[in-house]
Amino acid sequence: MKRSLAEWSEQELLMLALPHENTDWKPYLSEILDAYENFVSVASAFQKVLLIAPDETHFKQRFAKFKNTEFFKCPTNDTWIRDFGAIDIWENDKLTSLDFTFNAWGGKFQSDLDNGVNLRLFSEHFKTNLQEIALILEGGSVEFNGEGVMLTTTKCLLNANRNAHLSKSELERHLKELFGLQSIIWLENGFIKGDDTDSHIDTLARFISPNTIAYSICEDEKDEHFAPLQAMKKELEKTPFELVELPLPKPKFYGEKRLAATYTNFVFINGALIVPTYDDENDEKVCEILAYALPRREIVSVRAEVFLRQNGSLHCACQNRFKGAR
């Protein structure tokens, strides 16, 4: 028997791949490392954090001071480990980790080093079972409720730059078998400007409980997000799940580039939910909404504006490893 895991399942640790001089973060490396330092300081107060990078320099300078942190030396192209990190499932009364092919969101960027991280990490550090899967799939493109339902988008999973040799029905059959799913909800609508992942679900809609989905909504009728997100809302309203609206922050820019700011890029850790904030008037409102929806979980926030410059946020920057994987 196989079973997909909801992100709120008990975790062993949180994995992050640190920015370094050979990534696209180089022009503002100090700023993004400051942001990662804030992220790690919050997450490590709740559970262990594993930091991955080609050398220990930044770990020793900035992160070794935090309790519950450890380091693994490994070359990387970039930092978005949500998408190239292994995905844990429960199989035959134990956890196993699935290693999908990562092609940098359809070949948009260099990805050979990132695609090799799991093999080195599991053979040299975790020393547990890693199952290679001959499909292209990113962790940010799939969302699970832990009870056999997966949420995703057609724009990403059915994009010709991923698994063009498979029809929707063929891909769905593979995914149901791999993750032990009963059903898949395919969203046709919704996008976040500045997101270069072809509409990852973690920018749009997320499970926060087995029967509840939190989703992005735009309150400004003149904004380009308004109509697509309204169309996505209508799709979600046809599902059997309870819905929680998370209003987008006001438009954020870096130079002339609009940034992909969304609150659904939150991160579950043991006992808490880390919410990205953007120095916006909706920051407090969204945290209050999530606190009401999740009364038994501590809601903590981390400023995430700098993450947006490379088209991601907090959830994109980490991957969970669940308890029982050792």
Keyphrases for this structure?
about 325 residues
Task: Tell me what you see in this structure.
- This protein is of the alpha/beta class.
- Helices cover 27% and strands 29% of the residues.
- The protein has eleven helices and 19 strands.
- The mean pLDDT is 97.
Estimate the mean pLDDT confidence.
Answer: 97
* Oligomeric description of these chains: single chain
Tell me roughly what share of residues is in helical segments. Answer: 25-40%
Helix/strand order, N-terminal first: EEHEHEHEEHHHEEEHHHEEEHEEEEEHEE
Q: Supply Rg.
A: 18 Å
The number of distinct β-strands equals: 19
Which class best fits the helix and strand makeup? alpha/beta
- Number of continuous helical runs: 11
Strands of the largest sheet, in order across it? 1-5-6-7
Q: What's the N-to-C terminus distance?
A: 19 Å
Which overall shape is indicated by the principal axes computed on the Cα atoms? globular
Could you give a short account of the major beta sheet?
Answer: 4 strands, mixed
Give a nutshell description of this structure.
27% of the residues lie in helices and 29% in strands. By secondary structure, the protein is an alpha/beta fold.
Topology summary:
Blueprint: E1 2-4, E2 11-17, H1 29-43, E3 48-53, H2 57-63, E4 69-73, H3 81-84, E5 87-91, E6 94-101, H4 104-107, H5 112-115, H6 117-126, E7 130-136, E8 143-144, E9 149-153, H7 154-157, H8 160-163, H9 168-179, E10 183-187, E11 205-209, E12 212-217, H10 226-237, E13 242-247, E14 253-254, E15 257-258, E16 267-269, E17 272-277, H11 283-293, E18 298-303, E19 318-322
